[in-house]
Amino acid sequence: xxNIQISYELFLMLVKCHLxxxxxxxxxxxxxxxxxxxxxxxxxVYTRYKTADTKEEQENARLKYLDxxxxxxxxxx
Length: 77
What we know:
Helix content: over 70%
Structural class: mainly alpha
Distance between the termini: 35 Å
Shape: elongated
Largest sheet: none
Strand content: under 5%
Radius of gyration: 16 Å
Number of domains: 1
Number of helices: 3
Order of helices and strands: HHH
Number of strands: 0
């Protein structure tokens, strides 16, 4: 099983939400978890690009990585 690190702020939001039953943190938690999931996915695709066995697999992973980054940039504007 892999471990994933989260920010201290996200950890505190999760604790407050789940242990203190403070639902006001739900939107912030969802936003941060989505951001983290996007980063994890991009990292996995980048790793696939760097470790691909064939040029075709490498090119497919590169295009997917660029697509992920472009979508993120468009979303942030």
